[in-house]
Amino acid sequence: MQVSVETTSGLGRRMTVQIPADQIDQQVESKLQQLAQTVRLDGFRPGKVPLSVVKKRYGRQVRQEAAGELIASSYEEALQQENLKPAGEPSIEQTRNEAGVELEYVAVFEVYPEIEQPDLNDIAIERMSAEITDSDIDNMLEKLRKQRTTWTKAERASAQGDRLEIDFAGTIDGETFSGGSAKNVPLELGSNTMIPGFEEQLVGVSADETKTIDVTFPDDYASKEVAGKTAQFEVHVHAVAEAQLPELNDDFARAFGVGDGGLDKLREEITNNMQRELDAAIKSSVKKQVFEALLEKADLDVPTSLIDSEIDALIKKDEAEADAVADRGRYEEEARRRVSLGLLIADIIQRNQLAINPDRVRETIEEMAQSYENPDEVVQWYYSNQEMLAGVQTLIMEETVVEWVVDQAQVEENSTTFEELMQVASGAA
Questions:
Q1: What is the band of 330 on the pLDDT scale with cuts at 50, 70, 90?
Q2: 0.90 surpassed by pTM
Q3: Does the domain at residues 2-111 carry the CATH identifier 3.30.70.1050?
Q4: With contact defined as beta carbons under 8 Å apart, do 47 and 81 qualify?
Q5: What is the topology classification, in CATH, of domain 149-244?
């Protein structure tokens, strides 16, 4: 077998393979003899069809089958011989397939890039930390109280935090516009659900009152029709209601599934949940910094075939799949980033012989299961579902890589508050 390789682009390769004539001819002859023993043709007894007749009728078909088998087996052999690692499936074209001459085909494909491990010693990583205080727990309890808000009619003018039921009709230069009117809309003052200035002007209104207000749509408003324009709204208030929050007591705790232990037990569970959120936020922040640093350090030439495959995967996850297919370009940057990271992570794993710790996988699954009613069943389900288990294993492998990189990097430890850390993590997600 003769193999020659041509570089067509950075990662593009054109590999020409020639298989000796006697090898392909022998395989064709063997297949024809086997076929002659089983083929049925009118005028001949089974197994008695002359080889010349079989060859005349089936020779071309048999030769193509033999060529396909030889190409499949020789392709892998040729790759090993030339020390090539293809990325994606090749495009293969037979260029010569005739009796008495070499079988020749051309395989066009991309190879994986050669990756040089970057110097990680100068990477700067900020690792934040925070303590969960009683005040943080109190704030969380207050949020839970607001989730259980009830509303009662208020016989007074509206104030921040009240909920109004309104009709509104808007005009711009005296003309109505799309989306500018609605009826029986609940609106909590201070929720910032309406455009800036709308809610503020309704503080102090009473039930059955009608008020005209002027607001200006932001320049970056989603609807270009009204962006940057000033509108006049006529707002009719049907009702004003004030918030009633539940008391913090054992009944409140029971509403959240806490039977024994009452409010103290609820605070304990809230603390545990917040600690899990905090730990996850710290991990997420560090991981993001590590991944960004790796991408910045490495200047990879990424195979287009892998990018295309990743785009397909992203589109499949997109809920608006039909629209997404028509606009593959908007997925390209994210796909390139994901593929690049995958290559870098795989290289670090291989180069440094990193491995998944099965005990750590189980610990992670058990921790995740704690938020469910029957944790043991959840653990069993993970271990019985290969796809879900593989997802956790991938997560642990990524964390192992991140920890390895952090060990090489310059790490700055900074303490902050729980709220600030969660805000930072939310912005980094």
A1: confident
A2: no
A3: yes
A4: no
A5: Chitinase A; domain 3 (3.10.50)
